[in-house]
Task: structure prediction
Amino acid sequence: MALRVGRIPFLVCAPFFHDFLGRESEYPQVDFVDGPPSAHCAGLKDGSIHLSPASSITFAQKPGAFVLSPDICTSCSFEVRSVKLFAKRPIEDLNGRRVRMTAQSMTSVTLLRILLEDRYGLRPEYSSGAYEDSDDAVLLIGDQALEENERHRFAFDYDLGALWQDWHKLPFVFGAWLISKEALKPEMKPVLLDYMDATQRSVENFKANPGAALDKWLAKYPVQLPRPVVDDYYSALDYRFTEERKTSLKLFFKYAKEKGLVNEVPELEFL
Result:
């Protein structure tokens, strides 16, 4: 049985996957499945994939079903730059206003609700679907957010990672490597451990030579961004799953439970 890995074709995930591009045949027991975070979160929960750098809220949505990589995640040093609220008016003025939510990441949607409602005391009108001109604000993630940064169509924009860190003095964890316990079975675990070791090396190789890594990544997953913007993006990201970040993740789950968005605050279990 192959190890099915959810691969996210966003710039934020390039360090995790660039080393495997063009070398998939060297991993005959691994199947890569491309898709956005929302698709992989669903795949993790229904068992169609075994692991992915998924939206962190997924771990709390199905308690006991997954373990986490203890070493790598998707976080930021302050600003994440690719999870942003773009608004026509200041964030303090969004009470009762329509905020369009992305469908690509429940972590980002949950974080925005926590920030708007608990930090700012607001009750906006939340909408899903494509952005409309009548909307007062829109939440975008990934490459869409980076591209919107370059368009300058909105009077105000807010980086959700920066808002969380300013509030709690902790870096936010947007994505964590979720691993189904199905992959811990004896017949699959050796493949899983080898794959996670290779992923750790991929992150290290990206840090050592980001230019070459991005050349390979952008050849397969092009974006509509100037190359200097792409290169600079990684100065804001940090892939180490530190104790501080684990504390932040547990705090995020606590807020999500208080809002009724998850049923419990799960204990963090690691590979």
Q: What stands out?
A: Residues 10 and 157 are 21 Å apart (CA to CA). The first helix runs from residue 14 to 17. The radius of gyration is 18 Å. The mean pLDDT is 94.
